Amino acid sequence: MGRETLGVVVARFQSPELHDGHRHLLDVVESRHPRLLVVLGTARTYVPTSKNPLDFATRREMVRGRYPLALVAELPDCRGDAMWSRALDAIVAEHAPAGDAVLYGSRDSFLRSYSGEHRCEEIDPIEDHTATALRLEAVTRPATTDDFRRGVIYAATTRPPVVYQTVDVAITDDRRRRVLFAKKREDAGALRFLGGFVLPGDDSLEAAARREAIAESGGLEIGDATYLGSTRVDDWRYRGGADRITTALFVAPYLLGRATGADDVDENEWVSELDVTSGAIAARLVPEHRRLGEMLAAHLRARR
């Protein structure tokens, strides 16, 4: 192999440190080429995830700490393999204008997905090391050092602000002209709408609304949830920070059952529709749900 070629390692290195398998791959490539380019794949998610917790800058410095002469570039994930291969070739071209480069990977790496113009070689792993195992160890055995705490603060501070999606539901009993609300002991007798956070397993906002309404009413049978609108919630738990909550308000007809309060709700209370439409309910609602009360009142007045 010509010594003038650029050795390229394409990896993610989503681990607290470079493990033996990572270092073996990098050492082999560094021994074969006068220049080493490490291309780090980067997820295009909005915030860090358990699979991709480390940003590019953090991983770049981890590589440079062990391989100070290495070139390090970032390759964001692409929709498909062909597009990703072209993006990788463009990065390689910036560092090897003559096109003299060899791409290296280990078993189950990018090699099967790459369709670009450069030659690829597979490096046999020395042991069955995985970054997944190292991430799991980091979670199950958190360190107690200053550096660890600095890292936690860095991760929480540098991530983009998050808007959390919630749903709130008004269960309406049209026959008796009343609306079901929830009570929590922490609210000192104030009322709130039934609802909660949308979960990853929810297929839609409507499905989340139905799940929350049934859970917090103690298992009432209800009809299909109808969307009324959305609004920002001034949740006291998030004041002072950059994160926010946006909720979608739904109304669902009562069909059958006795409301007993369940999940994180201590009890339910039926309120007359007149108290809602007249605005009398506002003084009894927790402050963050008063805007929802106005939205529901407008809906009930409009359908008369």
TrEMBL record:
<feature type="domain" description="Nudix hydrolase">
    <location>
        <begin position="162"/>
        <end position="298"/>
    </location>
</feature>
<dbReference type="InterPro" id="IPR015797">
    <property type="entry name" value="NUDIX_hydrolase-like_dom_sf"/>
</dbReference>
<dbReference type="Pfam" id="PF00293">
    <property type="entry name" value="NUDIX"/>
</dbReference>
<protein>
    <recommendedName>
        <fullName>Nudix hydrolase domain-containing protein</fullName>
    </recommendedName>
</protein>
<dbReference type="InterPro" id="IPR014729">
    <property type="entry name" value="Rossmann-like_a/b/a_fold"/>
</dbReference>
<dbReference type="InterPro" id="IPR000086">
    <property type="entry name" value="NUDIX_hydrolase_dom"/>
</dbReference>
